[in-house]
Amino acid sequence: MKALLYHGAGDIRYESMADPMPVEAGDAIVRVTACSICGSDLHIYHGHGFSEDRGFCVGHEAVGEVVETGRAVSRLRVGDRVMIPAAAGCGACRPCLSGNVIGCENGAAACYGLSAALQGSQAEAVRVPSADANAVLIPEGISEEQALLMTDALSTAWFGARSADIAPGSSVAVIGLGPIGLMTVDSAFVLGAHIVYAIDPVPERRALAAAAGAVALHPDEAVAVIREATKGRKLDSVVEVVGSDATVDMALRLVRARGTVSVIGVQQSRRFAFPLERAFAAGLTFRVGTCSVPEELPTLFPLVQAGRLKPETYVSNRLPLRDGAEAYAMFDRREAGTLKIILEP
Amino acid sequence: MKALLYHGAGDIRYESMADPMPVEAGDAIVRVTACSICGSDLHIYHGHGFSEDRGFCVGHEAVGEVVETGRAVSRLRVGDRVMIPAAAGCGACRPCLSGNVIGCENGAAACYGLSAALQGSQAEAVRVPSADANAVLIPEGISEEQALLMTDALSTAWFGARSADIAPGSSVAVIGLGPIGLMTVDSAFVLGAHIVYAIDPVPERRALAAAAGAVALHPDEAVAVIREATKGRKLDSVVEVVGSDATVDMALRLVRARGTVSVIGVQQSRRFAFPLERAFAAGLTFRVGTCSVPEELPTLFPLVQAGRLKPETYVSNRLPLRDGAEAYAMFDRREAGTLKIILEP
Amino acid sequence: MKALLYHGAGDIRYESMADPMPVEAGDAIVRVTACSICGSDLHIYHGHGFSEDRGFCVGHEAVGEVVETGRAVSRLRVGDRVMIPAAAGCGACRPCLSGNVIGCENGAAACYGLSAALQGSQAEAVRVPSADANAVLIPEGISEEQALLMTDALSTAWFGARSADIAPGSSVAVIGLGPIGLMTVDSAFVLGAHIVYAIDPVPERRALAAAAGAVALHPDEAVAVIREATKGRKLDSVVEVVGSDATVDMALRLVRARGTVSVIGVQQSRRFAFPLERAFAAGLTFRVGTCSVPEELPTLFPLVQAGRLKPETYVSNRLPLRDGAEAYAMFDRREAGTLKIILEP
Amino acid sequence: MKALLYHGAGDIRYESMADPMPVEAGDAIVRVTACSICGSDLHIYHGHGFSEDRGFCVGHEAVGEVVETGRAVSRLRVGDRVMIPAAAGCGACRPCLSGNVIGCENGAAACYGLSAALQGSQAEAVRVPSADANAVLIPEGISEEQALLMTDALSTAWFGARSADIAPGSSVAVIGLGPIGLMTVDSAFVLGAHIVYAIDPVPERRALAAAAGAVALHPDEAVAVIREATKGRKLDSVVEVVGSDATVDMALRLVRARGTVSVIGVQQSRRFAFPLERAFAAGLTFRVGTCSVPEELPTLFPLVQAGRLKPETYVSNRLPLRDGAEAYAMFDRREAGTLKIILEP
């Protein structure tokens, strides 16, 4: 089959690779009908390798159709339309069974497309291990595109917003307005925020946030504007969706005494300079981490079905999978107008 | 001064009474600039007397201007624009100080306008006991009309919705679409409901709920329609805003296993036939009671300031206080188009 | 095999019946090494039949050893030591997988031993449907006896206590001091209660509660004593563990304004006279229902392993299964000294 | 009067100073009957000056008797026995009124004894500003000694434990076993912890923790022992009660994926090297800050009255106030057996 393979920093190629086959009795093979590029794929693209492997298939956001099931698969049938959450677990421990894949007690939690150990899904087909647990039937009233955007982006955005303790009446900032950041703005409003400051250097992204009801700010002005607007009180909740020391530091400057910062941007800093003295004086809850997608879905499905969340708003491009290399380059340039890119095998 | 006085069932008169004076050192006198009629005023109007008194001033929703303060009043000044929450407490115990007037440890909690003990506020002026605690400054960005609607109606609606454990993604029913019921519909959406069924026999009220995004149903069809729409699963949360045995019973038929019913309609039943066997089999949380207005305000102020809640939508009439008797009669007839009536002294 | 079979009110017999066999591929057969009699078994014993069936095996609390597994069973192995929670679900839907058997979306939730549809476990062996989900491995550090007491009694007690919103510093009453009531007293202390009133007419049961740290009261004196001790304020949380209208009514008289009543006694009243007017005036949370055992276990296992909860304290008798008829009669007489009866096949 | 005055690092003297007098109408003067030395007093003693002042009175833990009240004081009377929480606020804003002194909206929150602006209470008498809000009547059933230990130590310990999200069944570590650390161990058990690891280099302190039911560990062995005991899973909740980078770092090594670290040791680090990459991979809630004493008291009073918490256990010395200089030196040496020192004027 054809797939997007990683050959080093900046080098993603559309090439042939072996068709995926069931390895364990619980595996299923899913023919991918649509996949997408995530901001965290850029970490791989930039060569911050999560592994030393080369030639493996990338990508962790996909939807498709079950075409083959191992003999221990009991809940899925060939022909089922499924979404594949970004990470898979053992599928047998209590956390996995209840949707907390990341908390897999057998240490089997892994994201697709980071190494040859679990091939990615930017491909014509993908092997899903323990598929009863790790593939999710797309429910009625959810389009394939919406389901694709819930395999990671919207689930992460929602998790980030609720991890920031956003409640009705909250004042909020979201730092970073890529697709996940924009969906975080929407999530904050559904959680009851009365005001959301949306911060990003790219004017087109700020315009989208403003269209969603946020007060859009350039990073250079954000701290000063928010301090003045709140008379120095600052904000109840801040969500960092970038993954740099500077933006985490900004988040810590924007939060009020006893407020909450939620960091969902992929972090690679080992010695972030945390202002412990200041945090102690004011009081702070600081949350860092990522979501377990299946845990978020029971809440998100009805909200998307009812149109309260519309993640499809942030799809900017649909390209054939064969143009994947150019799609990565385009997404990496953060060009005006480029947001979520969907690839079709 | 002039005021609306109660003389028995169906007999409210616009008459003269003595001007209110400070009795205790903590009292303040507020010149009423607007007051309103609440659904629970109809209980008095119908002669379900909360007391045997006659000739006292009715009403418990008012805003106005401080015109006199006792010598122990330290937070209010003459000239301040204030709202007067429906019930007053001692103002000195910890619950009162933190806004939980209803939980007053000195047993001083009382609603205005139920007896001669605490005269009502459908008048040109009203005495506010322990005014530092029992009058609230109207903050910037809140109109006088909005503040008036928060002295009871919106606060009760919000309390009812959150007492029903409504969370993002919830399915909800609201039974009874007077002003509080309609504000409960709005509150449910701000709390994240993905669908709200709004139930009332009056077509005009259903139309307003539909305009707010709800699925409007006549009581006769509600149980059947909701069971079918949810494939028998029924709803996460139901709010009863009427105060009759029949509607409480309906609420208990609409809620799913392990769901929550919140009853905020004024209840006068001493032996409601509760289906304990059925509730036990399914699991149920059943909440009954009313709100302490000042507890809800810190959440509601920013939501109203930001326009996420617009209680003023449900004002249908503005009349001079002198027409109060007719206003009561009109409100009691539940005529098409009559919702919240504001009276101006 | 031998088992206890129901032949009508008061008529439980130790008789032969067919050995259980796997029916579905997910079934397992468990050789029962110990089972026990629950207060709710007395409802069957008294002929309040949950079905019209006769000659079926009773009982829903058992531990044992897996002796046979259907071919779709993947998590259990022959020889495993397991506990069997009181109710079983489909084992495939998300609620079942996460431990909420009662919320089974396929409507498959059923308690063992109520009819011929799912034979009970007061027998030499029992069929466990969807055994991967419905049997639980006994973890290290939990004795077989403790595990048996967690298949229903302790799990229900714990659920009842936490459903009463007991928190550190709470004042509590527990009405009914059978084994579950006594474990509820212990649970209340683990949840942080500062005082627990324990109410029962049987002096020996009151003595056990007193030994556990509670203030023991006879039902005739409870309301008066508690009102005086709390200066009329009454209690934060009340748990009803009996299942009669009189005790539910007492619970509603003992709870403070805005407090919580949790009803876990099996209720058969269809028209309980609920004091809605009084509840409305004071504010109340009223919870009714029963637990889903597997949901409680992740919390209970470490508490029992660490000795913070000792359900084995309340075992009063160990008898051979063949004496089951006499055991039922003895338990039904509520004799001094009779609490939890364990039966050994 | 006589008092302990700060004259620079290591230089605390028992000297005369002017008697305190009411400055504002809301002030009260309290004759101190007992005061105590807090771990955070050592920061001052070591000259990490919170101010450049010299000659001011130190100390922020005291109980005593009201001897004079300003004319605006309405809730306190001369002769009342009161405890004085460590920090005072304006006493008029909603946060202050509800007990959240630290969140004082008028920016008036200040700790006693850090500068000449608000003189300390290691003295024969102390001025309490806005005394209605900032002094608390000692309730029946609480000894003066217990009340003294609740003005800061036990309240902070309890806050630290609950900020660590300790719940029934939790596994916990407490790092630092001074008086607050030991009370944190006790608090963790009341919150339902099934195991508490207590970590400190001083053997006598470890022995006290072991007597309280904890597993006592030397810091050098803690990480290895806990990783092995939990099979690498680590702990649900960790409380840091020291205030050094090394112990915060240890806390971050002891917490499980998605667990919570609560830091209540006084922090002075401006650039703590936070392992953001590791925290992101595992998921973490990190809380830093200190308590507002009056917020904790409604929960703590019944727990102390009922004997579930016994802070008096950790009093090691009672000395006359005149020996204060020696008391500071003794406490600073962390000698075996020296824990909480009470000073009597």
TrEMBL record, chains A, B, C, D:
UniProt entry tagged with the keyword Oxidoreductase: yes
A Pfam family hit: ADH_N
Signal peptide as annotated in the record: none
InterPro entries from the UniProt entry: ADH-like_C, ADH-like_N, ADH_Zn_CS, GroES-like_sf, NAD(P)-bd_dom_sf
The keyword Cytoplasm is annotated on this UniProt entry: no
Superkingdom assignment: Bacteria
Domain Alcohol dehydrogenase-like N-terminal: from-to ranges: 25-132
Swiss-Prot/TrEMBL cofactor(s): Zn(2+)
UniProt GO MF annotations: oxidoreductase activity; zinc ion binding
Alphabetical UniProt keywords: Metal-binding, Oxidoreductase, Zinc
Domain Alcohol dehydrogenase-like C-terminal: 179-304
Family: Belongs to the zinc-containing alcohol dehydrogenase family.
Name of the protein in question: Alcohol dehydrogenase
Source organism: Sphingopyxis witflariensis
